[in-house]
Design brief:
Elements lengths: L2 H8 L3 H9 L7 E2 L5 E2 L2 H15 L4 H12 L5 H34 L10 H10 L3
Antiparallel strand pairs: 1-2
Length: about 130
Amino acid sequence: MKIGDLAKTSGVNAKLIRHYESIGLIPKASRTQGGYRTYLENDVQFLKFIKRARGLGFSMKEIKKLISLWKNKSRSSHEVKLLTSIHIKNLEQKISEMQQMVQSLKKLSQNCHGDSRPDCPIIENLLLESGKA
């Protein structure tokens, strides 16, 4: 199939497909006499796998590792679980940091009058935190 068909079938746009190919995430496509890329049904699976992994927040480096584990039929599931466990801990850390940001912003927002006066605790806090107060 041509790249347009692959994009439609996999749900991954052609530009990303070419990018994934260039970084070795998917195998290099065969070429026709006219230079067009041609793909196999197996490439659809690769792209759907990558798309799902990206949707779960895995980095490209992690996805490369997951693909190598997927291809390795003698792998232990322990390696996959370990990679996923590390990813979960990183996500939980990011969530915690974002929740702290939300709480800080809520507090600052509650203390802002939001009227025609120029004084604003939000701006003041940003200036204090940047060291320019």
